[in-house]
Description:
Blueprint: H1 7-12, H2 14-17, H3 23-32, E1 34-38, H4 44-54, E2 58-62, H5 87-98, E3 103-106, H6 116-135, E4 144-149, E5 154-159
Parallel strand pairs: 1-2, 2-3
Antiparallel strand pairs: 4-5
Amino acid sequence: MSTKLNKREIEKFSRQIILKNIGALGQRKIRDAKVLIIGMGGLGCPAAEFLTRSGIGTLGLADYDKVGLSNIHRQTLYSETDINKSKVKIAKKKLNEINSKTKINIFNCEYDGILGTVAGIVGTIQANEILKKIVNIGENLNGFVLILNLLNLNIRKVKLKKRK
């Protein structure tokens, strides 16, 4: 693990650092972590944004797609001025404005239709799961599928069984 947190990092992430299960050690783990997000759509955007805001050290963004008008309502890093531009290039620029210390590498998926709020909810859950894994707190979803029915507000975890 790299060096101690500097004064600016302590101030910037103080609300996270004061959490009992994070602390300075957890924040250093977040800062030193490397995460790859495949697909910078409705799920990748909030995951990338919140990981960047949390102080993630290195973030890889993989997506070949360009921003389209139909993306704007649910892909939170893009605006109408970004239409027909590379999603990963636009995301990198905007994420660097949020946290200039996060190293962002851009690399390589069209989805079925989705309500914008659903993408935000799931993307935020994904970012939360990644942070829990990095700092080794709480229960994670390893070996489970999280099923969300947001029309009826039903949420459940289902254990996956390995196939031979």
